[in-house]
Amino acid sequence: MTGTGLGEREIIRQLTKRFQQPRQRPPLGFDDDVSAYPMTRRHWLILKTDSLVASTDIPPGMSLKQAARKAVVATVSDFAAKGVQPAGLLISLALRPPIRPSMVNELSSGIYEASREYHCNVIGGDTGESTDLVIDCIGFGFADPETVVRRDGAKPGDVIAVTGEFGRSSSGLRILLSKNKTQARRFPRLVRSVIHPIAQLEIGLKLANSMMVHSSIDSSDGFAWSLHEIARLSKVNMVVERIPIAQEVETYAEQQKLNPEELAMYGGEEYELLVTIPREEFSELRRRVPSLIRIGRVESGHGNVFLQSREEVTKIEPRGWEHMRSHDPRTR
Amino acid sequence: MTGTGLGEREIIRQLTKRFQQPRQRPPLGFDDDVSAYPMTRRHWLILKTDSLVASTDIPPGMSLKQAARKAVVATVSDFAAKGVQPAGLLISLALRPPIRPSMVNELSSGIYEASREYHCNVIGGDTGESTDLVIDCIGFGFADPETVVRRDGAKPGDVIAVTGEFGRSSSGLRILLSKNKTQARRFPRLVRSVIHPIAQLEIGLKLANSMMVHSSIDSSDGFAWSLHEIARLSKVNMVVERIPIAQEVETYAEQQKLNPEELAMYGGEEYELLVTIPREEFSELRRRVPSLIRIGRVESGHGNVFLQSREEVTKIEPRGWEHMRSHDPRTR
Q1: Does ipTM top 0.85?
Q2: Contact criterion met (CB < 8 Å) for A49 and B92
Q3: Most B CBs within 10 Å: which of A131, A133, A142, A322, as the mutation test of the B interface?
Q4: Nearest to A16, CA basis, from A26, A6, A3
Q5: pLDDT less than 70: residues of chain B
Q6: What's the angle, vertex CA A268, arms to CA A265 and CA A269, rounded to 5?
Q7: Pairing of strands A134-143, A43-53
């Protein structure tokens, strides 16, 4: 967010205050990755809407097809975090005229590609005109409440784990924004993590089905922010013992004289899952999901997040992903 | 749509072609007011997304609160046309920074007001930044497929009826765009139809529950366009014997030297329902829903729409509501 206006968190806080019905509180809070509507006590409708906006979310070098695919990935990633298969999608497009056939073709190709990847068909949508391209992807699915992994379930004694390494997307975004083609060629995985992200749907379903996971969140708002959300909603402290930084991020950071930990912690649109698991079940779960990386532990506390190195314990700030602008090297 | 780009109909046609699965055709076409997902054979999930965009949908004189309320009304109106009570809403907001607290307050007040009017709580949503304000309102509900009134069910011999008179919103929009305060004071109902529209949810539910209605559409794309949609999808001809023009529209048109029939036929965002009913059941249904106005008949044919006056039969063009621009008197 820019200027003197409200930040996204504050907007959500205000909206939540208005819409939360004291007597008809929805079974998943406004703070969770998805919304839930209890059709029966044992059968929930799961819904998520996530919008991608051209002016803030499409960096140079990303095609419309890639952007449209990514809009779907973002929504699917929230389903992955809760362990719910999306059953279908609706797409709402606000397009900037003049609208060329190739534009519609690219958008529909990207959406179609993602809908195949994650086995959820588009069953409807809406189109309109706007001065800014907005792709709103709405997903729906069905779940037994017992298998839905919430953000507020972390318990002291849990292990914190993630499904992959961090820092690629914030580094890749810097490369795209710099329009430095040599760097883009040198670090293809970093760039690809921005233009062709992957939602961890299969792993998310496996984690939820294990019934071993206490809490889960998708990391699209950044590593640090995701830790803070689990800490705040579960009313615990999170202690990070190891920041899972991707090797290419270390190399890129060294070359650019950047702090690799910063790139990993305060990036975003990195569609890994961050989960907490009872310590005694972690080995068994990692046997089933080998990509899980143990990064820390949950302690009793009041919503704080710490980084524990050999020398010291420091607080990790609740800073998050604040769209492209805050990552634009030109404005830093 | 403007310039040399694609029109909205053509965009929808292209998207439909891409997303319609030949073997998993959704039970309601992409062409209907809402989308449906069969949870079981006798229990459908009904979904609708409809977005309101500031640059094309908010005329001068309309507050943000009114715009937000209208975004909900538009979605609810589609549920009304199918005879389905919306169970809840998700709201996706793309906001233009800097975002003032009063802006968030107005938007949430308008959404909240409409959610109370139509008995459907907001259970989630998303916010982001954009250069254009976009309010995407997503509704969901549940229905027995037998009670869902489709667009493609009109039969030769049916009576065509509407739930109210037409022309108010196109006239009201002209008044707002002209910024003529004297006119706005003189024609309060015309202005009000734009800034405080009403979705015919109660009547839509009553019509569907009667099991007498063959086809139904909400008239938000305009009177003429709605007739054409029923004609095209039901593969029949529609013969209009009487254009239901509101009295204030006649007065306004006379004063402005405009054609009142044009105002009524080619307006839009007029949230009445247009339905077809077997001739022999019409009197009984009007007893139950006294606001129904009989305006014509369905004949066998190939998707044409005619206007029959005492003197002659003329074709009604398939022109529709093309957003604010086409109604702006300055560009006419």
Answers
A1: yes
A2: yes
A3: A131
A4: A26
A5: 1-5, 21-25, 321-332
A6: 145
A7: antiparallel
